[in-house]
Amino acid sequence: xxxxxRFAELLEQRFDIACKRIGFNAKRGRRLVTTLFWVPxxxxxxxxx
Length: 49
Description:
The chain is an all-alpha fold. Helices cover 35% and strands 0% of the residues.
């Protein structure tokens, strides 16, 4: 999202504050668990048609 007016600045500030409050993007020293992901194209759900 790109914005340059006062509303965009206010929205960015509120988002940053909310992220800090809930600990989003906090460095915890955890590694990404790649076993929870699968290769795109492998059927995980049945087709509707």
